[in-house]
Design a protein that fits this description.
The chain is α+β, with helices and mostly antiparallel strands and 66 residues long. The termini are far apart. The model has no long low-confidence stretch (mean pLDDT 91). It is built from 3 helices and 3 strands. 41% of the residues lie in helices and 14% in strands. The longest helix is centred in the C-terminal third of the chain and has 13 residues. The chain has one domain. Strands 1-3-2 form a 3-stranded antiparallel sheet.
Length: 66
């Protein structure tokens, strides 16, 4: 049998922070409404869409001094 693994639709704060190479505290300070990183709340969990993280990275590139 072939096992296929689909990519995660949402990631935890720990996974999001690790993928951005920042600490969780920095992630929290950049999470809406304090910051501009959108999140999804399911019950008590705060989760992040990898596509939103990529969009946030792209926005940060455009906002740099040039």
């Amino acid at each position: 049998m072939t096992s296929t693994t689909s990519p995660k639709l949402l990631v935890s704060a720990r996974e999001a922070a690790a993928s951005l190479s920042i600490c969780e505290k920095t992630l929290w300070s950049n999470t809406a409404p304090r910051g501009s990183i959108p999140f999804v709340r399911i019950g008590a969990r705060v989760l992040y869409d990898p596509a939103d993280l990529r969009a946030w990275i792209d926005a940060q590139k455009k906002g740099g001094a040039g």
